[in-house]
Amino acid sequence: MDDNGREAATAASERVPCRRGSKIALAPLEVDDAEVLQRWRSDPVAAHEIGVWPRSLSWLRERVERDLDDSDRDDFLVLLPDGTPIGCTALIDQDLADGTAELVMLLAPEHRGQGHGTDALDTMVDLAFGELPLHRLQAVTHTENTAALKVLAKSGFVREGVRRSACLHRGRRHDVAVLSLLRPEWETLWRPRTWDL
């Protein structure tokens, strides 16, 4: 880990989590997290599978600051028990009148495939349906992003359809899968709620 990574981990370890899963915790995202976000967004797998690309640190810092002022979204840093930041997640485009929101997530490359994504997703779903008046959560990813599709299915999301040729990346068009989870479906899931862990 470089000096920037150590500083981000130290700052994150001083945070008081607002939510806990079985293996992770969530803390509100802060503007100073832009450096670690920039490193994760520079990962070519993330660029391909979720459609992000590297931007300047100043651009990302301004974007985080703007997003933190947006009342239609809630952004969190995903932390290990020791406070190490391993990703970020958010509920975006929240419409409390209709009871809808979209869930997004990005994990650091070295922390994928270890169950942290499922744990963070379940924690966010429990927040959306257990604390907020939401009825429908949506998630969108490339149809080729098998890891994300597997995590979403494990957390109860149902594939609704495909937006054909909806994303351009590296000169090639990609289909995008649309998945959702409804409150009644969440209520029937046979798993402990994160507040019971």
Question: Describe it for me?
Answer:
Strand 3 and strand 4 form a beta hairpin. An eight-stranded mixed beta sheet has the order 1-2-3-4-5-6-8-7, with helices on both faces. The longest helix has 15 residues, at 116-130. It contains seven helices and eight strands, in the order αββαααβββαβαββα. By secondary structure, the protein is α+β, with helices and mostly antiparallel strands. The two termini are 31 Å apart. The model has no long low-confidence stretch (mean pLDDT 88). Helix 2 crosses helix 4 (57-68).
The structural class is alpha+beta
Tell me the helix content: 25-40%
What order do the helices and strands follow? HEEHHHEEEHEHEEH
The helix tally amounts to 7
Q: What ranges have pLDDT less than 50 throughout 5 or more consecutive residues?
A: none
Mean pLDDT, rounded to whole units?
88
Strand fraction equals 25-35%
Oligomer: single chain
Instruction: Tell how many strands the DSSP assignment holds.
Output: 8
Strand order of the largest sheet: 1-2-3-4-5-6-8-7
Instruction: Give the terminus-to-terminus CA distance.
Output: 31 Å
Indicate the overall shape.
globular
Query: What Rg do the Cα atoms give?
Result: 16 Å
Biggest β-sheet, characterized? 8 strands, mixed
